[in-house]
Amino acid sequence: MLAVALALVSILAYAAAAAAQHRLASGPAGTSLPGMMLRGAWWAAVAINAAGAVFHVVALKFGSLTLVQSLGALTLIAALPISARTTGRPVSRKEWRGAALTLLGLAAFLPVTAGSGEPTHSLGVPAAVAVAVIAILSVPAALATRRGNTRSLSLAAASGIHSGAASALFQTVLLTGGLLSWHSVTIGAFAISLAVGGLLLSQAAYAGGLGAPLAVLTLANPVAGTVIGMTLLGEGIRGGLAGAALAAVSALVAARGVILLTRSTTVELARGIPATV
Description:
The protein is an all-alpha fold. The protein contains eleven helices and no strands. The protein has helices spanning 2-25, 33-36, 40-62, 65-71, 74-87, 93-113, 125-143, 149-176, 182-205, 211-232, 240-271. Helix 4 (65-71) packs antiparallel against helix 6 (93-113) and helix 8 (149-176) packs antiparallel against helix 9 (182-205). The longest helix is centred in the C-terminal third of the chain and has 32 residues, at 240-271. The protein is globular.
C-alpha cells in the first residue's frame, strides 16, 4: 500500500510535467531544446519531473518493478485534463475513449504480471550494463524513423524504454544498500543517465502532441519493466496459460487505445491545431 501511495503522488507530478513539456514544445518558440533550456518554465517542468522521479524511486523500495511501473499508466488520465486546462481546449470523446482503452488494457495486464510484496531480487553490474546498452540502442532506431507523427511516437517509445530501464537500476541501488559502494555508484550512474535521456526524449516526442506520445510512453515503460522483471528479477506471469492469454488480450486493448489517440493527434496536426493529445 505504501508503494501504491508513493506511486500515485509521482503520477500527479509526472502528469503535470508532461503537460508543461508539451505546452513548451508546441509553443511559438518552437521545439528547439537549446532554446527551451533558456526558459525558466522548462526548468520548472524538469523540477516537477524530478520530484515525481523521487517519489517513484522510493516506491520501488516497497513494491515490485512491474507493479510500480504499471501504475504509471494513470499518468495518461491525469495529463489529458491538465493539458486541456492549460491550453483552453477540451478533451474530445475520442481522446477519452483512447485513454480509457489504454488504461483498461493495462488494468487487465497488471494483475497477471505484478509481483506482490517488497522486491527481493536486484541486478548485478553485468546485467545492469546490458539493460542500459539495450535501452540506449532504442535511440538510433527512433531517430531513423521519418519525421512527423511516426518519429514522435518512436521517440516516446524510446523514452518509455529508458524510464523503465532506469527504474530497474534505481531499484537495484536501493536494494543493495551501501550507496557509496563501487557496485551502487556504477549502476546509479547508468540509472541517472537513462533517466535524463528519457526526459529529453519525451520532450522531443511531445512536439507531436501529448496524448499519443504519452500513451506510447505509458505502454513502453511498464512493458520494459515487465520484461526486465520477468527475465532478470524472477518475476513471472500469474495464472499459467490463462494469465498469458489475458496479458496478450489486454495488450491488444491498450494498443487500440493508443491508435485512437494517434489518429486524434494526426487530425489536429493536419488542421494546424496545436495538439494536446
